[in-house]
Amino acid sequence: MALIVQKFGGTSVGSTERIKNVAKRVARWRAQGHSIILVPSAMAGETNRLIALAKEISPSPDPRELDVIAATGEQVTIGLLAMAMHAEGLKAKSFTGPQVGVLTDSTFTKARILKIDQDRIRQALAEGNVVVVAGFQGADEKGNITTLGRGGSDTSAVALAAAMKADECQIYTDVDGVYTTDPRVVPEARKLDTITFEEMLEMASLGSKVLQIRSVEFAGKYKVKLRVLSSFQDEGEGTLITVEERGNMEQPVISGIAFNRDEAKLTVLGVPDRPGIAYQILGPIADASIDVDMIIQNIGQYDTTDFSFTVNRSDYNKAFAILQAVKEKIGARDITGDTTTCKVSAVGVGMRSHPGVASKMFGALAKEGINLQMISTSEIKISVVIEEKYLELAVRVLHKAFGLEKPQKATLGLTGRGETDIITPS
Ligand code: ADP
Ligand code: ASP
Ligand code: MG
């Protein structure tokens, strides 16, 4: 008998009807003798509604109070789920994050989990309960309620699985696994049977919101068996995130295309070309806790150069204001900004052993007349910043250029089969 952590996303608990379905599903697992820790998100749209409410009172809400508000969404679903399970004749008990000792740091709205107390959960499991723990939330040392950033219930589930040494962590969502790209943008996208942690980390960090990036980091670090599955289908093995790479022969060059609409570009024009300038520009940006993504500095001409970088769109106004002050200090000519950019990336561990990926990617985009504003590469990814209006086109074109719609031999020829066994309820 296994201990399984099952996370259900917002759509999967989006109505009382769906909550009842989750309870029925859990009943089948319990009938097989498995122990279950259930980690729901808030009902679909609820977290957005709560944040919007807070913003009606204050356009930039106090982060501590915002977390107090946002954390309530999950408190509703844990109670409803526990009741739905009682109706199925199951023993079940709900707990908020703080109640089961989910200890986080104090970075309100994007806190990190530091520790989880096992005692209360173990006790409730030993009493025969399905243990329902609110995702997305915890408390810091002082007992302040914290939340883990958007999509954070994934991380709650994986952290619980790690702390409790669960046999598997199953992420139930509205798609039946991880696809070669977002199936909402490319209907021909193909479900992957497996994807490596490394690739999933890149996909998540480059914008594929199917898993929150920290959940993948946690799973990799603590060796949690992590699987993405559909909450609407009873069949199917979903996608297993594995540590294994496929054999070189069978390795597809590109495993997926990720994208992020949330990019904004800032450029400091006419920057003096001398040591320390990048630090003078980005230092104040970092001090304001603004994450910088891509950075480009052009070749200097006549002792000056242009310096561009991208930030999350929600940080754009703040970053622009900071640069205005920096401009005076360093004697730059001007600041320009663009909030209609986006980032598209090709990801694959197979890139390591296959040259020519960048040229294929740039060629495919050039054929459609898509201008590349910025480029960045790492060992297993190539990202480009382009105009947002071309996003869907670029994703479709790249998906096709790398033949991702076709079944690839690689997904069949997996090594380490022992790792891929699925635990099924029947
Ligand atoms: P949940 O509410 O269950 O956490 P999310 O909306 O956070 O669900 O994540 C699931 C969504 O992620 C899918 O509906 C899909 O549109 C999107 N998505 C983006 N990239 C991918 C991908 N590569 N594979 C699967 N889904 C993806
Ligand atoms: N409810 C939170 C959100 O909408 C957490 C989650 O869904 O994972 O971001
Ligand atoms: Mg999510």
Task: Please outline the major beta sheet.
Answer: 8 strands, mixed
Class derived from helix and strand content: alpha/beta
* Ligands (ions, cofactors included): adenosine-5'-diphosphate, aspartic acid, magnesium ion
Global geometry: globular
Uncertain parts: 410-422
Give the strand content: 15-25%
State the separation between the terminal residues, measured CA to CA. Answer: 13 Å
Mean pLDDT across the residues is 92
Radius of gyration: 23 Å
Count up the helices: 12
How many β strands by DSSP?
A: 20
The proportion of residues forming helix, as a percent range, comes to 25-40%
Widest sheet: strand order?
3-6-2-1-9-11-12-10
Brief summary of the model shown:
This protein is of the alpha/beta class and 426 residues long. Helix content is 32%, strand content 25%.
Descriptors:
426 residues, alpha/beta, four-stranded antiparallel beta sheet, 12 helices, 25% strand, binds aspartic acid, binds magnesium ion
Structural features, described:
This protein is α/β, with parallel strands linked by helices and 426 residues long. Helices cover 32% and strands 25% of the residues. It has 12 helices and 20 strands. Strands 3-6-2-1-9-11-12-10 form an 8-stranded mixed beta sheet, sandwiched between helices. A 4-stranded antiparallel beta sheet has the order 13-18-20-19, sandwiched between helices. Strands 15-16-14-17 form a 4-stranded antiparallel beta sheet, covered by helices on one side. The longest helix has 16 residues, at 16-31. The chain is globular. The two termini are 13 Å apart. Bound molecules: adenosine-5'-diphosphate (ADP), aspartic acid (ASP) and magnesium ion. Aspartic acid binds next to helix 6.
